[in-house]
Amino acid sequence: MAYRKRNKKKLVSASNRKTCMDLAPWIKSVSNHMWWSCSSSKGDPKELLRRWKSILHHICGVHRWEEGGMEYKCYHTELTADEQRRKRLLAKDSPAYKAFYEAVMNARLLKDLEQMALFKHTGELEVFHNVLLKYCPKRLHFEYASMQARTMLAVMDHNENHNTQREQAKTASGLQRHDVVFQRQSKQWTARPVYKETTQTFRNNMMDAVIQRRLDPSVKYKDPLSHMKVPLLAANIARVSKPNKEDVIAGHTSRFTATD
Question: pTM of the full predicted structure?
Answer without folding.
Answer: 0.59
